[in-house]
Amino acid sequence: MKYGRIKFVVSAIFCLTLIRPSAAYSQLYSTRSGFVGFYSKTVLEDIIGENDQVYVLIDAGKKNLAFAALLKGFAFPKQLMQDHFNENYVESDKYPKASFSGAYTGDVALDKDGAYKVSVKGNLTLHNVTKPIETSATLEVKAGHLVGVAEFKVKPEDFNISIPSVVRDKIDKEITVKVKIDCVTK
User: Fold this and answer.
1) What tens digit of pLDDT does each residue of 121-164 get?
2) In the chain, what are the domain boundaries?
3) Which residues contact 158 (CB under 8 A, 6 or more apart)?
4) Contacts for 10 with CB less than 8 Å, ≥ 6 apart
5) What would the CATH number be for the domain defined by 27-185?
6) Looking at the chain, which terminus has fewer C-beta neighbours within 10 angstroms, N or C?
7) Confidence class of residue 6 from pLDDT cuts 50, 70 and 90?
8) Tell me, what's the pLDDT at 38?
9) Which residues in 83-101 are b (16+ Cβ under 10 Å) and which e?
């Protein structure tokens, strides 16, 4: 009888050690205040559009991530830029959001504070066009938070965004996109 009980306890401990790591790695992290900014710098004009109301969901167990941003959430230093962005370029009434879904590769120890280099690969949908994106990023585990930073470039024409020839020289051919997130377990 005693041997059976010891065998059960050893089996239970073994099962818990198998389950516990997978539970730790299947944690969902999220925020509704992620940041995405885009930047164009030319000799004629600098354009800055920033949105700090981006919804982010990260499944750390599967290493999947998803972002969604309402395009009308982007703020600009000049109201006229914001109007042109929403009405003429991204047509936010017709295509109200941008989204990204993908995965990251690289090891991130969720139980240990530190910064980890990862590679992110997925699909960006903007203006009803989906294009693959691949970039490097940093994920930092910090006091139970998952903090991320990434940067990549996009071309407006890749997303069927037409730039009138009158202002073409005021907008960079490649727009820099910066992402900053601070997610907590869900």
Assistant:
1) 999 999 999 999 999 999 999 999 999 999 999 999 999 999 88
2) 27-185
3) 129, 131
4) none
5) 2.40.128.110
6) N
7) very low
8) 96
9) ebbbeebbbbeebebbbbe
